[in-house]
Design a protein that fits this description.
With about 180 residues, this protein is α/β, with parallel strands linked by helices. Helix content is about 30%, strand content about 25%. The longest helix is centred in the C-terminal third of the chain and has 18 residues. It is globular and about 45 Å long. Bound molecules: adenosine-5'-triphosphate (ATP) and magnesium ion.
Length: about 180
Amino acid sequence: MNDQNTTIDSTQVTLNFTDEAHMLDFAAEAAKQMPMGSVLYLHGDLGMGKTTLSRGLIQGLGHQGAVKSPTYTLVEPYQLTDGQDGKSKQINVYHFDLYRLADPEELEFMGVRDYFDSGAICLVEWPEKGQGVLPHADLDVTITPWQEGRTLSLAASSPVGVKLAEQWLATWQSQNNDTDTE
Ligand SMILES: Nc1ncnc2c1ncn2[C@@H]1O[C@H](COP(=O)(O)OP(=O)(O)OP(=O)(O)O)[C@@H](O)[C@H]1O
Ligand SMILES: [Mg+2]
């Protein structure tokens, strides 16, 4: 998919989660390491946990309310304020779900470049549906079943993605008090 981006082998990371709560605890912490403007593609079959992971990240970024699946609206914006260290900083997040996109051209009509060029963090479910129009990801996250829970496979495609993958691995290791991802 990322024809212009090469996948950097050394930053392919696999993280296992025994259940939803385990993944959400991780997301709450991982959210703190998302630089402005980072683009994450979330891959995985129907019902695999893409919205659940997005919810964890968006709430970890400071959103207090619900995070609904933007299946019908295609995109849901979040304007968050990070009040850490006395200074408040605005964080914009766009959560896309392109499952119902009939044609990638629809993304052009909705001005998708403006969303991605705005410096916001972009989380994209079903990025395959926007192939050819959607800007490239920094990090591809693929969710697959693992025991009763899920595995997240991270593949970085930019320096930002490499850093994210490394930080997420470190977060997973510190939370699980282990140096092994298996
Ligand atoms: N880490 C996890 N371990 C076990 N179950 C999980 C985990 N994450 C999510 N689930 C469960 O998977 C189900 C589907 O989650 P979710 O709606 O997030 O999937 P999705 O990938 O966004 O689906 P869709 O493709 O329809 O958008 C939910 O019932 C949720 O409880
Ligand atoms: Mg979803």
